[in-house]
Amino acid sequence: MAQSDQIARLQRRLEAIPKSVREAVVPSLVKSGEELAGTMRKLAEPSRDTGALIESIAVTAPGQSTPAYSQPGGGRVAGELEVLVTVGDQDVRYPHLVEYGTSKAAAQPFFWPAFRLLQKRIQNRTKRAIGKAVRDGWNKP
């Protein structure tokens, strides 16, 4: 499959980032994922029936695989600089029905409100971690 010049250029730039910088950013990404998952659990509390939905919220660190049947994405492996927060598993296949509602049940959103609430904070944390890693890598002999 042919790639656009923009994608190829972005991939070259990402590959040029020193490995030490990439490794230094991972802890902040995982921390952000855990914070996002915790906020989702709190926002999902009003929809608690059995607690299975709340327990199915999972954070997948780089290189790990998401739970089967999770949403969004299903079973896939997180990239090197990617932390995935998913909801659902093989027993809980209804998170989208809770999030968006049905004709017989009102929506009880928890996923996207948590994301929107923490988006700026996560971006700032990631930028700080990248900046610190670059400065530390720059000052090494």
Describe the structure.
With 141 residues, the protein is mainly α. The chain has one domain. 54% of the residues lie in helices and 4% in strands. The protein has helices at residues 5-15, 19-44, 52-55, 95-100, 111-139; strands spanning 58-60, 84-86. It has a two-stranded antiparallel ribbon. α2 (19-44) packs antiparallel against α5. It is elongated. The model has no long low-confidence stretch (mean pLDDT 90).
Average per-residue pLDDT, rounded, comes to 90
Percentage of helical residues? 40-55%
Number of helices: 5
Give me the count of strands: 2
Low-confidence stretches: none
Please tell me the total number of domains.
Answer: 1
How much of the sequence lies in strands comes to under 5%
Q: Could you tell me the radius of gyration in angstroms?
A: 18 Å
Major sheet summary line: 2 strands, antiparallel
The first-to-last residue Cα distance is 42 Å
What structural category characterises the helix and strand content? mainly alpha
SSE string, helix = H, strand = E?
HHHEEHH
Shape: elongated
Largest sheet, spatial ordering of strands: 1-2
